[in-house]
Amino acid sequence: MSDGKRLIYILWPSFIVAGVATGVVFTVFDPTDLRFFDREITLSRTAVYSIGFFLFWLFAAGSSALTCFFQRSSADLNRPRGAPFDRPQTPPGKGTVH
Amino acid sequence: MNDPREGDAVVRAPKGGAGAAAVRNASEGEGAQALYAARKKIYPRTVHGRFDRWRWVLVWATQIVFYGLPWLTWNGRQAVLFDLAARKFYIFGFVFWPQDFIYLTALLIISALALFLFTAVGGRLWCGYACPQTVYTEIFMWIERKIEGGRAQRMLLDEAPVSARKVAVKGAKHAAWIAVSLWTGFTFVGYFTPITELLGAVAALATGPWETFWILFYGFATYGNAGWMREQVCKYMCPYARFQSAMFDRDTLIITYDAGRGEPRGPRSRKAVRAEIPLGDCVNCGLCVDVCPTGIDIREGLQYECIGCAACIDACDEVMGKFGYPRGLIRYSTENALAHGWDARKMVRRVLRARTLVYGAILFAVCAALAGALALRVPLKVDIVRDRASLAREVEGGRIENVYRIQVMNTQERAHRYRIGASGLPGIAVASDAQIEVPAATTRQVPLRIQIDPGTTAKGSHRIEVEVQSLDDAGVVAREQSVFLVR
Questions:
Q1: How many domains does chain A have?
Q2: Which of chain B's residues have a Cβ under 8 Å away from the Cβ of A5?
Q3: How far apart are CA B295 and CA A63, in angstroms?
């Protein structure tokens, strides 16, 4: 997998999940009822929704990134220090080999 | 939409040419594309025909709704407004509150089931005609064609070295794309914040930070998806494209190539007598491949990349017409119809089968439940919380009093005056103000004192019922259970 494709695999599913999570969480909780370290939140609701969306995106992206990280092959892990990653080459136009 | 330049330039570019252009394109550091190393830029040839016309009908229909809906007014306010800042959704005559989440859930279930049903019956009709990705790509390709020219001109332009003309043409295209994208982003945000105020703010360059951000964010997404990524979104990013095969069966409408009629394919002279050629009907012109927005060859069979846009049908029908062969070498059909040589009537009869009947029955049930719930919906919600500070106390005349806080939500767009009553214990009465006025679509919270006669009720907690009744509409009434404590 190329680095670019890996980036998409991390950012895109987490984007979808963040959208759903924002919708569900802020339907249930009103931002003006929330407290930030025991202090009232003075931001507008729109601001809290938006910040919340990016936090959800960040968390979900963290999970996706870990999934990608744990998918590394034993060849990747065993390679000598400094040696290039030994990734299986994708034949042109034949989809992805993980 | 008829582009004369397109029709004449029927020279098929050698594969290497398009590929080389694509590689150069990707290495020019154009963000979205570089994310896909193996991407070959696709230059779909323009096509005109029955299905292309249908797609444009749908482009117009969906976009008139999308761009126009926020400008409609209803009851003196925006007809469709998802007012996130006030936590109220206005949809024509209805006002939805966060407590109405159940309706939104039902709507999502209906959307999902409808998609299942339509996919099982019609295949990827949604993808080919109505999906925003398709619709915006169609609009953006139209702009591209008007500014850069037909397929051959676009390929030449991409391969040409940088020149003043190239910069001007490309710049004009991107400016037009960005203008459409920004208007789309503005419209999108206009669904969440009153659009006339938003327009004023935009004109005065005084939009709030988050409004500005989301206009630009959605605009950028439109520009990137419809301008740059196009079929990549369908092939790699769309979840529906990945799982639609689960809803397909052998009776699902798909775009098929009739191999039995077409093979063996091969070129021939238009003047040749049909009966004397030892070939099938496919003249191997390659137009079906050239027009495909995802760059596949439909003659290789059903592929998940096929978004069902029917551009190959339009292209093939035109060629069949030129050769005087019957249309429909590539056509909408089903796997069963193709295998058994069914006619259209037999194919249509298979629309009714176990899978579609089950999807349809569930869909109907959920729709009926939603419609019923909406029709019976009382525009009033009541919430009662016991005052935590006091339990029960004795007041004048020895009566026992409990204190509550009552929240009355008037979800209708006109003010109501309500009477608050209590029942369930001997001599129970509301001692605080028994009438409350709540303005249109607002919530009021007031203290509520309830008293009962002394000596009639045993110690402990007792169920009581509080009733809130509109004084001007007998149908608007809500009852809420609570607890009365006696010491």
A1: 1
A2: 35-37
A3: 33
